[in-house]
Amino acid sequence: MKAGIVLLPGDGIGPEVARAAHRVLTEIARLGGHEFTFTTQLIGGCSIDASGVALTPEVLDSCKKADAVLLGAVGGPRWDNPQAAVRPEQGLLALRKGLSLYANLRPVKPHPLLLDATPLKPAHVKDVDVMVVRELTGGLYFGTPRGRDEVDGLVRAFDTMEYYEYEIKRVVELAFQLAGGRRKKVTSVDKANILETSRLWRQTAIDVAKGFPDVTLEHMLVDTASMRLISSPAAFDVLVTENMFGDILTDEASVLAGSMGLLPSASIGEGGPGVYEPIHGSAPDIAGKGSANPVGAILSAALLLRHSLHLGDEAEAVERAVDRAIADGFRTADIRGTHGTEEVTEAVVKRITLR
Ligand code: IPM
Ligand code: MG
Predict the structure, then answer these.
(1) Are residue 250 and residue 292 in the same domain, yes or no?
(2) What tens digit of pLDDT does each residue of 77-129 get?
(3) Domain tally for the chain?
(4) pTM of whole model > 0.90?
(5) Which residues contact 71 (CB under 8 A, 6 or more apart)?
(6) Is residue 334 among the annotated active site residues?
(7) Residues near ligand 1 with C-beta < 6 Å?
């Protein structure tokens, strides 16, 4: 098949891991006889340096026209001043909103050979297989009004948590669909004892559940969920939650897999191009050293093949190759290995076989 893919390497280790994903996609195209066209564009701090904004309308436009977008990471100390009017993260939010990517899928499944990489007991995490579905274009990240002002001489800042029912419905529906193909359980996480938005969330989840009689719905308060993710992580199947809760819980959940460097994510919307990115950040401390773990980005490329290009066999081929490379001992420093980004990438590329 023919596909146009926009690469947004971004900042820090972003370019290193995006190169790895690019390499893997190129190999898949070669083996599968596909024609992938890649265009590399700026996002985040590098875009601020070049044009003053974290995502230009031109780049957003080229993403809209693509079949899929592969992103590295954005941000770094150079652009971290809290007073700054433009911040790298704005590029990511503009991209998510601009492409209407309302659902962020973050699968967390520890690799059987890397159980010793987590700080938790291996027996405790070995059966973990959770798919976190994070709402991505609503809530505190986008709600208005937001700002800073002065009331009676006192400085104040405020953000707004807001949700339309339809925004909750579509993401919860997706969670139920995914659960239908898995262990048939949805945990909807909210703070319904306190927040109005959470009460609407919970009510909507109950309504959606009626359309999926074979899937069990449970509700969990977010504070309880943060505890249960550590105390009984294997009990979760699909966890669906609002934007900010999902941001926090997915960093927590990544500990179950041993390293953030291993985990991919897919941001999808209503049929348009999806954005695929590792869940780790730009890791400025190791940027440019060639030591970043490329696995999160490579597995994100697999999700891109599966969800945006509908090449399920190719996606599995990439996932199998990653498993084999890990089984053969290829590991970066974050999982107590000594291999560099390129060594691990080449090890994966060599092990890709299409059935
Ligand atoms: C993530 C990140 C982003 C977020 C930042 C970089 C804006 O933490 O994708 O989880 O908060 O969504
Ligand atoms: Mg985050």
Answers:
(1) no
(2) 999 988 888 999 999 999 999 999 999 999 999 999 999 888 999 999 999 99
(3) 2
(4) yes
(5) 8, 9, 10, 14, 18, 43, 92, 95, 275, 276, 277
(6) no
(7) 75, 89, 92, 247
